[in-house]
Amino acid sequence: MNKNSPVYLDDLFVGAEFKSSEHQLDQEQIIKFAQEFDPQPFHTDEGAAKDTFFKGIAASGWHTAAITMKLMVESLPFQTGIIGLGGEISWPRPTRPGETLHAISKILEIVPSRSKPDRGIVTVECLTLNQNDELCQKFVTKLVVLKRPVDNLTT
């Protein structure tokens, strides 16, 4: 699929993969995000973080999720944007300063809507990996994706 062309439900197939660009994460970003949205010592204070479960600064899972969302928006060029219906998220390892993240999204299921024929529900597995391809986040979500509009013009 052409990354520059908008993607509709009709363009998708189970197994299709979309790879994002990369996002370089540094300690300043981690601390700034955490100070505003997840102010816990293992996210905000390098000295205090050494004595925590993480044994050092780790990005908030919500920070990793926010970065993943940015990468998904960029790499899943759905015509109507990414419209989520919910999902399941896990963080199997901490995301650390100096890591470079990228996301790989894979279409797991496509279910046309029975009540709204112009759309369907697409289940996507999005894996957020670091530069060593270690899994930092797994996100399985259901998205609303519209079909390509039918041209009503007659020739």
Distance separating the two termini: 29 Å
Cα radius of gyration in angstroms: 18 Å
Provide the CATH top-level class. Alpha Beta
Described by strand count, sense and barrel closure, the largest sheet is: 5 strands, antiparallel
Q: Helix proportion of residues, in percent? A: 10-25%
CATH-assigned fold name: Thiol Ester Dehydrase, Chain A
Mean model confidence by pLDDT = 93
Question: Tell me, what's the shape?
Answer: elongated
Secondary-structure element order, N to C: EHHHHEEEE
The count of strands amounts to 5
Superfamily at the CATH H level? Hotdog Thioesterase
Q: What ranges have pLDDT less than 50 throughout 5 or more consecutive residues?
A: none
Strand order of the largest sheet: 1-3-4-5-2
Number of helices: 4
Helix- and strand-based class? alpha+beta
Word description of this protein:
- This protein is of the alpha+beta class and 155 residues long.
- It is built from 4 helices and 5 strands.
- The model has no long low-confidence stretch (mean pLDDT 93).
- The protein has a single domain (9-146), classed as Thiol Ester Dehydrase, Chain A (Roll).
